[in-house]
Amino acid sequence: CAPPPPKVCSDITDASTCSSSKCPDDTSHSCLWDSAARKCNCAPNVCSDIKDSRTCAGSKCPDDTTRNCLWVQGVCSCELPPPPSCSDFTTSSTCRRNKCSDDTTRSCQWDSSNRMCSCAPPPPKVCSDITDASTCSSSKCPDD
Questions:
Q1: How deeply is 8 buried, as exposed, middle or buried, from its count of CB atoms within 10 A (0-12, 13-18, 19+)?
Q2: pTM reported for the whole predicted model
Q3: Average pLDDT, stretch 31-50?
Q4: Count of CB atoms within 10 A of residue 35's CB?
Q5: What is the 8-class DSSP label of residue 130?
Q6: How far apart are CA 45 and CA 61, in angstroms?
Q7: DSSP 8-state symbol, 109
Q8: How far apart are CA 94 and CA 117, in angstroms?
Q9: How far apart are CA 104 and CA 59, in angstroms?
Q10: Is 73 left (phi over 0), alpha (psi -120 to 50) or beta?
Q11: What is the sign of the dihedral through the CA atoms of 24, 25, 30 and 32?
């Protein structure tokens, strides 16, 4: 006689069956193996539903699968979204108001000829870093 089908994820006792199953009581979610507790649970609705660091670290945020769950000070939470990069800005006014996401000492700059926003180049450290004549002749030596 075969065992009855599981009524909830916690009725499943092995990792591979757990990982390939839908929650019997909520088929919109998958079962998730908790490696620390060695038991099967229904996948969480939010990162904070995850109670062990290893499961947290390997999970996507259930409510926003573009981000990862992150274990911080004993709690699993959804990581902050990355800051927008200059190329995400589509108007000159929003472009100029923002800093470069990968180097906040530099600002975004608007190129009106191709109507694109990009990260401004770093300021020159020496005169030989200046590559155009008009900027060179109107500049003081950065290293002096």
A1: middle
A2: 0.41
A3: 83
A4: 13
A5: -
A6: 8
A7: E
A8: 9
A9: 29
A10: left
A11: negative
Contact assessment for residue 17 and residue 34, using Cβ atoms and an 8 Å cutoff: no
Tokens for 25? 């009581």
Residue 105 pLDDT: 86
68-102 burial, b for 16+ CB within 10 Å, e for fewer? Answer: ebbbeeeebbbeeeeeeebeebeeeeebeebebee
pLDDT single digits (tens) 52-76: 888 888 788 887 888 899 998 999 9
Determine the Cα–Cα distance for residues 39 and 10; give it in Å rounded to an integer: 6
Name which of 69, 74, 99 is nearest 86 in CA terms: 99
Tokens 């660091």 map to which residue?
53
The one-character DSSP state at 17 is H
Q: Would you call 143 helix, strand, or coil by DSSP?
A: coil
- 94, 84 Cβ separation under 8 angstroms: no
